[in-house]
């Protein structure tokens, strides 16, 4: 079957999609967007987290056919998405839906780097998407809010402390600017 | 495999009548796991996401009509007052990502004894609105669960909504697992006090082949509360009364040993949760009584 939907602000079509295929597979294997990671394919790890019509979901549990006509944001589009949210214009240098390459980072991405919240990096894309969405909803989160929002994202490396630091840092920078 | 995309409820019913083995997919948080792991290869998958009505709810005089696909996150956010037990149960489901997709219709469709909506629905009192091209019917929640992962739906039926009684008193939900997020219940317990009818309802998860109520425990507690004039005098529930209630709840279980816990542990834990939730709900009932009396 064929699927038309929007990824990171750009219309995309995927052909010959198998009916039982997940959104995650379509993104990684058909659209060349490997940012969303595939670790468990059962909703347990959150490394495939994307936004579907704005809502954070596990891409591995969305059937490809369910995204027909809908809007998806992946980690590749996060910087652009954040820029537009804060009133900036979308970056024009990116190709296809791979807008993140070569451009500036989203504040949450910069905070993860600055706080040393990335080790092997496998969990990072999912955490970035989830954390970014939480800060959009809740600009001044408590530690409990952060833990709750990220409770569906597993990290096997960091022990989470640096991830907490990163999100606190992004929140602090956001409120300084706001 | 075929992917059906009905654009309306009527189209969905027609498709289900034509292909009774078609597997509906709402949030996909159960269905996609099975497909990803090759445990299921249905001939037809039927997407319900295009049917907007299924994601709506209506708060009526006595009950809430909850569309089958309303995600847990919405229930937590918008129906905490009307459906406190279900909102608490929803909060224990998996993670934000799963709660943004999964809902009560899917939980009922799967009918796992570990599904978190079930004890809350049993305790609150609910009816499942099932429909096919042959017509619509309301299945009382007590008659819905028929076996391990089996329910009363006919092959051509779909769940349109669940009608849940609005809380007339305090409700609680308690769940045992190895951590706070992302756990299938080792066992779970829901309790609802219904002061207007002076009744008490329970729901137990993961401690029998289906979700069950502890009816003997309910009857015991109702009689004891009535006899002692508790509803009117708002006295503290005595430890012996709570203990007896807990024992009867534990006795209502027929648990198994599995990787998540032993039968003995489950029975014990259900007793502990029964006692705790009774204390919490009763204290909250007494608190509310004092406030209304103070105001009068
Ligand atoms: C990582 C993870 C953790 C989980 N943790 C929990 C947990 O803590 N507690 C818990 O209770 N569950 C848990 N689940 C299971 C699942 O999220 C729930 O059962 C959820 O309620 C399913 O809803 P859904 O809309 O995603 O269902 P789907 O997967 O879309 O469907 C589930 C079943 O219901 C049927 N169905 C769906 N809608 C209808 C309808 N309208 N009419 C008839 N049949 C229908 C489907 O055909 C299918 O058989 C977890 C799942 C995952 C992946
Ligand atoms: S790959 Fe989707 S949650 Fe793990
Ligand atoms: S950095 Fe390796 S899993 Fe999180």
What does this structure look like?
- The complex is a heterodimer of chains A (178) and B (296).
- Chain A is an alpha+beta fold and 178 residues long.
- Chain A has 2 domains: 73 residues, Beta-grasp domain (Ubiquitin-like (UB roll), Roll), CATH 3.10.20; 74 residues, [2Fe-2S]-binding domain (DNA polymerase, domain 1, Orthogonal Bundle), CATH 1.10.150.
- Helices cover 35% and strands 12% of the residues of chain A.
- Chain B is an alpha+beta fold and 296 residues long.
- Helix content of chain B is 38%, strand content 22%.
- The longest helix of chain B is centred in the last third of the chain and has 33 residues.
- Chain B is globular, with a radius of gyration of 20 Å.
- In chain B, 50% of the residues are buried.
- The mean pLDDT of chain B is 96.
- Classes of the chains: A alpha+beta (178), B alpha+beta (296).
- The structure holds flavin-adenine dinucleotide and FE2/S2 (inorganic) cluster (2 copies).
- One FE2/S2 (inorganic) cluster binds next to loops of chain A.
β-sheet strand percentage of chain B? 15-25%
Share of residues in strands of chain A: 5-15%
What radius of gyration of chain B results from the CA coordinates?
20 Å
Instruction: Please report the first level of CATH classification, the CATH class of the largest domain in chain A.
Output: Mainly Alpha
CATH architecture of the largest domain in chain A: Orthogonal Bundle
Write the layout of secondary structure elements.
The complex is a heterodimer of chains A (178) and B (296).
Chain A: E1 3-7, E2 10-14, H1 23-30, E3 49-52, E4 55-58, E5 71-73, H2 78-85, H3 107-115, H4 124-137, H5 143-149, H6 161-177
Parallel strand pairs in A: 1-5
Antiparallel strand pairs in A: 1-2, 3-4, 3-5
Chain B: E1 2-4, H1 9-18, E2 23-25, H2 31-36, E3 44-47, E4 57-59, E5 63-67, H3 72-78, H4 84-91, H5 96-99, H6 104-110, H7 117-124, E6 126-132, E7 135-140, E8 145-147, E9 150-151, E10 158-165, E11 171-176, E12 187-194, E13 199-205, H8 215-227, H9 230-233, H10 239-251, H11 263-295
Parallel strand pairs in B: 1-3, 2-3
Antiparallel strand pairs in B: 4-5, 5-10, 6-7, 6-10, 8-9, 11-12, 12-13
Helix pairs in contact in B: 3-4, 4-7, 8-10, 10-11
The structure holds flavin-adenine dinucleotide and FE2/S2 (inorganic) cluster (FES) (2 copies).
């Amino acid at each position: 079957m064929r699927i038309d939907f929007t990824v990171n602000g750009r219309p995309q079509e995927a052909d010959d999609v198998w009916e039982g295929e997940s959104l995650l597979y379509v993104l990684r294997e058909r659209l060349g967007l490997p940012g969303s990671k595939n670790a468990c394919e059962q909703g347990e790890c959150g490394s495939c987290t994307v936004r579907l019509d704005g809502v954070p979901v596990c891409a591995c549990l969305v059937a490809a056919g369910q995204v027909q006509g809908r809007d998806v944001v992946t980690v590749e589009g996060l910087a652009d998405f954040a820029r537009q949210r804060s009133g900036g214009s979308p970056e024009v240098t990116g190709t296809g839906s791979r807008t993140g390459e070569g451009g500036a980072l989203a504040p949450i991405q910069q905070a993860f780097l600055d706080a040393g919240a990335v080790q092997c990096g496998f969990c990072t894309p999912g955490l970035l998407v989830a954390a970014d969405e939480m800060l959009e909803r809740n600009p001044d989160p408590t530690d409990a809010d952060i833990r709750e929002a990220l409770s569906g994202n597993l990290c096997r490396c960091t022990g989470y402390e640096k991830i907490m630091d990163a999100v606190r840092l992004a929140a602090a920078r956001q409120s300084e600017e706001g | 495999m075929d992917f059906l995309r009905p654009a309306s409820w009527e189209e969905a019913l027609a498709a289900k009548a034509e292909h009774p083995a078609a597997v509906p997919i709402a949030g996909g948080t159960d269905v996609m796991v099975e497909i990803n792991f090759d445990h299921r290869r249905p001939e037809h998958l039927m997407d319900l996401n295009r049917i907007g009505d299924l994601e709506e709810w209506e708060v009526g005089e006595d009950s809430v009509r909850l569309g089958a696909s309303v995600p847990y996150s919405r229930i937590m956010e918008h129906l905490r007052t009307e459906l406190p037990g279900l909102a608490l149960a929803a909060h224990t489901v998996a993670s934000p990502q799963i709660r943004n997709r999964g809902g009560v219709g899917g939980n009922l469709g799967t009918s796992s004894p570990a599904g978190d909506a079930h004890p809350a629905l049993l305790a609150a009192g609910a009816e499942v609105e099932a429909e096919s091209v042959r017509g619509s019917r309301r299945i009382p929640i007590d008659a819905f669960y028929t076996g391990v992962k089996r329910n009363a739906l006919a092959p051509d039926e779909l769940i349109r909504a669940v009608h849940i009684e609005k809380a007339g008193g305090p409700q609680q939900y308690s769940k045992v697992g190895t951590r706070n997020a992302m756990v299938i219940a080792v066992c779970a317990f829901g309790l609802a006090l219904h002061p207007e009818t002076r009744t008490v309802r329970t729901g137990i998860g993961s401690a029998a082949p289906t979700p069950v109520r502890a009816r003997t425990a309910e009857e015991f507690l109702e009689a004891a509360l009535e006899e002692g004039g508790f509803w009117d005098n708002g006295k503290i529930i005595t430890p012996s009364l709570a203990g007896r209630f807990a024992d009867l709840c534990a006795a209502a279980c027929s648990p198994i040993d599995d990787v998540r816990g032993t039968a003995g542990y489950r029975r014990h834990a259900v007793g502990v949760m029964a006692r705790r939730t009774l204390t919490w709900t009763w204290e909250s009932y007494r608190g509310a009584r004092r406030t209304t009396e103070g105001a009068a």
